[in-house]
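Action item from last week, closing it out:
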Amino acid sequence: MAMKKLLLVLLLFVSVNLFAGDTYCYMILDHLVEGKFKVYIDYGTEDAASNKNYLKGDDGKPKEFVNVAQLLNYMSSKGWEFVQLNDFHVKVHNSLVTTIIMKKSE
């Protein structure tokens, strides 16, 4: 009987952890002329490609950052954890594209 209870508790624990997952976001830095940048953010919603979702501050306006460390510190203060950063050089536009992936644990 004790073994059945132990198995039931383990089964419940495993099933709860299967449904508790991480949420990811994908960010693209949109460089501005004055050396700052805005951040396009995709939370994985279906309308993300057709919707320009800029990371907004408490005032509802797109937030501007002066460097990546400032962005990472801001996202960390909101509960997000850094996963990956990529820089791509786009020859057609002769520009650098920076993307960042972050996650928030449930």
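Closing note: Residues 1-19 have pLDDT under 50 and may be disordered.
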